[in-house]
Amino acid sequence: MATGGARLLPLELLDRTIGSRVTCLMRGEQQVDGTLLGFDDYCNVVLADCVTYDNGEETQRLDQMLLNGNGICAFIPGGIPS
Amino acid sequence: VFPHSTMIDIPVAGKRDSTLDLARHTDQRIRVRFQGGREVTGVLKGYDPLVNLVLDECVEYLRDPEDSYSLSGETRNLGLIVCRGTSVMLVAPEEGTQEIANPFTDDADAVDEDGDDAGATAATE
Fold first, then answer.
1. Choosing a second label site near A74 at 20 to 30 A (CA), which of A10, B88, B95, B123?
2. Which residues of A are less than 8 Å from B54 in CB distance?
3. Does residue A24 contact residue A75 with C-beta atoms inside 8 Å?
4. Exposed (0-12), middle (13-18) or buried (19+): which is A53, by Cβ within 10 Å?
5. Is the pTM of this model over 0.80?
């Protein structure tokens, strides 16, 4: 199967997001916004200046967090467009 | 040599081959469902062998707050997103899919508009 070649590799796009805001959509109704500091092979993610949401309501603000990649469904580079 | 099964002549996916050919869906709108119930559609812009995806012009279909299994009909725009392959449960092209009446309701006498008898077929399967 083609690896993507001239097309956009997903983890490449994620790599380009390092330093920018990102929204992480989790399984279930949770969401985490933060500045992406880095990620690993499992898409565990380090975020700064984070805000977590549950069902649209803000639940926590944290300076830094290590978010377990296991529960992540999707990343939105730049955050959710308003 | 492309692996074939020994009993019947059908191709069998090898260890490194994917059973899903995403190349033919690039630049087309696809529906993606995730573990946990999230559902989106977006234009496929990129992928990798682990089924991580890049979707553009992505729209999320929101669920009913009371019943997390049914869609509320509301949507929100997500723009360009990266989908985690480990959470992807379903990938399907939007082109060629159509919504049909629910074949599982008690409405046994419901009229089938295109005469496909899709409802009856599903019920007897």
1. B95
2. 7-10, 13
3. yes
4. middle
5. no
